[in-house]
Amino acid sequence: MAIVDYKQSGGCDVWVLSAGAVRMDGGAMFGVVPRPLWERCYAPDERNRIGLTMNCLLVRGQGEVVLIETGFGGKVTEKMREIYALDESDGLLASLEALHIAPEEITRVVLTHLHQDHAGGCTVQEDSEYVPAFPNAAYYVQKGEWEDAENADGQTVNGYRYDEVMRPLSPVLSLLEGDENICSFVEVVVTPGHTRRHQSVLVHTGEDTFCFVGDLIPTTHHVKPIYVMAYDLYPRQTYLVKQEIMERAVSENWVMVWPHDPDIAWGRLRRDDAGAYEALSLFAD
Predict the structure, then answer these.
(1) For residue 141, which of 24, 111, 118, 119 sits 20 to 30 Å off, Cα-Cα?
(2) Where are the alpha helices (DSSP H) in the chain?
(3) pLDDT over 80 at 17, yes or no
(4) What's the angle, vertex CA 22, arms to CA 21 and CA 26, rounded to 5?
(5) Cα(148)–Cα(162) distance, rounded to whole angstroms?
(6) Would you state the pLDDT for residue 89?
(7) Domain range 3-281, its CATH number among 3.40.190.10, 3.60.15.10, 3.40.50.11270, 2.30.180.10
(8) Are 254 and 268 in contact (CB under 8 A)?
């Protein structure tokens, strides 16, 4: 299903949209956590992979149509598609079409980081060239994230698609330096760990604050502080920063949006009697 969830909040329409499904190595998704523990969260297949989704957030209101994240956007080799069991049949563009929102109507695209499963859908191929998929939108990412992607080395280069995504975006990309307001109701906060300048996105509707947390906390099961991905370049920062963000989320009653959780797209956090964080589906209460 392309449209995962919907909520009207403070005069804004807010959707979680699917950009497709993917299977990732369970051990890599949970880092140093032993398999007997993490497989209680997601049952792995015969290749040790767990089923995940690629969620995006769309907000329409106050004269803006803001898109957060874009998925792979079809920019994968057949080998990679097979390794990750990537299914983009109900992708982002299909989600927008189901809502009768044309790509030209998107005014801003905000990326938590430039890894291809988050930024790949920012461009589309026209003839032999790649061009911005949302031609009237401004695009936003942290300057340090761009620099790290542009200078990627043997450890990090496979996470990015320079020619297909980054080069076509460079003329329309706004490079941010730290926490910043994007428009009247959207702000970004730097949340390093997964990458050096990863950012999370806050949407303030007046009724709710939605936090698209990105790969700092990819699923609801990663609210456990020590559940840190092996994909994270700075795991110690992930461990510390995610706790800071979750404490704010609890105290300010944010709606958290999880980019890769196949079961709970968004919800609120609470702390139990032992002080552990627990994620509740937005529509559970």
Answers:
(1) 24
(2) 26-30, 35-38, 78-83, 92-98, 116-119, 143-150, 167-169, 235-252
(3) yes
(4) 135
(5) 12
(6) 86
(7) 3.60.15.10
(8) yes
